[in-house]
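Please check our next protein.
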Amino acid sequence: MGLKWTDLGDGYHRVRGGLFALYVIELDIVGAAEHDDLVYALGTGKIRGTAARRFFAELIGSKEAGMSVQEMEGFDEVTRELMEIVSLLPPDMRLAGLDPEQVLNHFDPQQRLAGLEPQQRLAGLDHDHQALALPLDVLRLLPDQYFRSLSPEVQAILRKRLA
């Protein structure tokens, strides 16, 4: 197309030869050169600095954006990094406005359960699901009466595990 790039330095470029003036910036280079953490985060997806954290926290909680923030390119990567940062904060400093289910989706099951007492891990489970959580050595000790108290589906799963 006959276009020429002119390097203006620090991540800025001018493209010449087109129908209009065109400037291109490399976000990660400009962000680093200008010590602008928000521009840097938009380029690399790596959040560093309080201004960028605050911006993304407000954006995620915003209902005023013209589109769903979840539809933005790179949202998952930025959210994953933000969740890592949030998980390091004491509870009274955590960001408000985040959907708890969305936060939990960014942690694997072991991370979700870390630090919970065994009774907390099983809290809210019905009789059948508690039985599914039992280890094999405990299942082998349970009387037939206990197995008969479980649903047929759970009985089948447990008998398969025991076999």
